[in-house]
Amino acid sequence: MGRAKTRAVIFVSSALGALLTPTYALAANGTEPARGAQLTDILWGTGAATAATAFVIWTAMAHRAGRISWLGRLAGFAERVSGLPGWAALPSAITGGSLMIAVFGFYWDVAKHIDTGRDPSPFGTPAHYPILVGLFGIALGGFVAIVLGADKNVRTAVRLGEGWYAPLGGLLIFMCGGFALSGFPLDDVWHTLFGQDVTLWGPTHVLMVGGAGLSTLAMWVLLVEGRSAAASGAQEHWMVRLRALMAGGAFLLGLSALQGEFDYGVPQFQLVFQPILLMIAASVGLVAARVKIGRLGAVQALAFYLLVRGLLSLAVGPVLGRSTLHFPLYIAEALLVELVAWRIPRDRPLTLGVVSGALIGTVGLAAEWGWSHLWMPLPWPSAILPEAAVLGFAAALAGGVLGGFVGRALTAGSLPRQAAPRWLLPAAALVALFCIAFPMPMNSGSSASASVTLRDLTPPPNRTVAATIKLSPRDTASHADWLTITSWQGGGLVIDRLHRVSEGIYRTTKAIPVSGKWKTMLRLENGRGVRALPIYLPEDQAIPAPEVPAQASFTRDFVRDKKILQREAVGGSAFLQLPAYLLLALIVGVWLVVMGFGLRRLETAADGRTEQPLQHLPRRFRKRAGRVVTHA
Amino acid sequence: MSSLPIAHMGHVLIDLPIFFGPVFVLTLWIVWQTRRDKRRGS
Questions:
Q1: ipTM for the whole complex
Q2: pTM
Q3: In this predicted model, what pLDDT tens digit does every residue of A319-343 receive, in sequence order?
Q4: Chain B partners of A116 at a C-beta cutoff of 8 Å?
Q5: How is A452-517 classified by DSSP, letter by letter?
Q6: I need a labelling partner for A563 at 20 to 30 A (CA). Which of A105, A117, A162, B22 fits?
């Protein structure tokens, strides 16, 4: 025991020493922490992270050596109240709770940045704390599952050592949480190389948000493993059913996270992305939920999604006083999936997915179209109809198939496995990828300018104006997806969809702020041309960038939208950009492939189970099933 | 040059130990334990 303790102390000290070395070495060299970070912040943060990590490792070592019992007792308590094995019950509770904390911090932080711009100091923004705690909690949930270890007879578990089997879901959660957390330092490196990309869709931001979003699926895998390992034939605990619908809803929340810019009305990409992303999220999430949960599964998952998104919107907007967070409803899509599942049973998840996808891509798309006009900050115009109809339908169809595959993996062993041609999964993935990649290229559109006349509504220092805009050429905005004056980062968000007076002449309908820290611009998007012209931009010494004053009248040219919205982005070396993008693409690729292998392992493990009599299944399943395996 | 306020938690010197550090150490611990168990098993 003494030797083991010594080795443990050496290991922890070395690891922590390795962690601290770069920090102290650079600090000792007198390298002043640039760009706002102070030495005290570094010491404080490093100290807290070191203490937390040391405690987690000490607990893990002590638990595995049998020196402490409280972790096992905690898992036992979770097992008693949930009906799931402790190694699934406790980690999924930690992960689920952490996801809720992280998603709250995420939407709060995005709103905060939209309203007030960059942070004054690393630890000066309260919204960062829930993100920090939440993302740690996600990784911790996975780590706890690995430390607790699954039973030897859990076929999906991965053998780590003698008598030590890590639940597959635990490993996947840990991977997702780890990727999400490692996105933060990568983000800093990105900012250093290319400046700050004030968009949710920055590559490293996608890594962070995507990692957290995908951990919902990993958590679902862990719950499925736990349920499979629970006593065969035991009545399903109500908590298990509740967690299943929460996992379905969380998956839908995770799939919707990257729509954030559209939810707040400040997208920096083509508007057609919103219907495409919505269709993918709805079809993948709702089909998977219906297949896994069963009758009304899509509606139950949706109810949890709406509850959380509703509470988040209330918390971020009215309670915390930030910009309103909008969200898609998915109600029509959920009802469509239920309608299809009424005729096509869950044991044909891929057929269910294809038919649901087709309906979601048509009727569901039309319903979301209507909802966008009721509540979304940028309603979908008819200009995006052809592209949205085609790509939205394709995305929904592909999403339905992917959702069917996810559902099939999650029900492996409890339902007969529907066979599918080998090309179906890669084809669906490629179609989904194409739908996302196709609208990605953007430019500054054809050469155009605007003559702007301002009329003061409120005098300085909080000056607001009304504007009249004359576009040149006159038809510049004739097929615009959006034409707005957007003001942000000055203490709020103002999105004014301009009133058309006549061909090429528009007026504001709201008071437009043009003072202090506000950044006010005329934004126009028609297809690949995503552009803007500044109306007022403050001086920003930190970039550095001069003030763009809001004169009584001026004529300015439209430029690429990104140039104004992402003033801090410095572009960086093109030589460095390609390897940087490739590295991040590689990380995302690895992460998706590992998730795919995880789901595949669920299926193959179920295939290896002993065949059982069919009597416990409903008659319709017995007819179709050539062979049926147990475990609910 | 004046300091540039930051968008997320902060500078790489803060984010590396805070975010990546624990992931790195915990992963290392799992790998170390796995190898130790395998050695003992063999």
A1: 0.84
A2: 0.89
A3: 999 999 999 999 999 999 999 999 9
A4: none
A5: EEEEEEE-TTS-EEEEEEEEESGGGGTT-SEEEEEEESSSSEEEEEPEEEETTEEE-SSPEE-STT
A6: A105
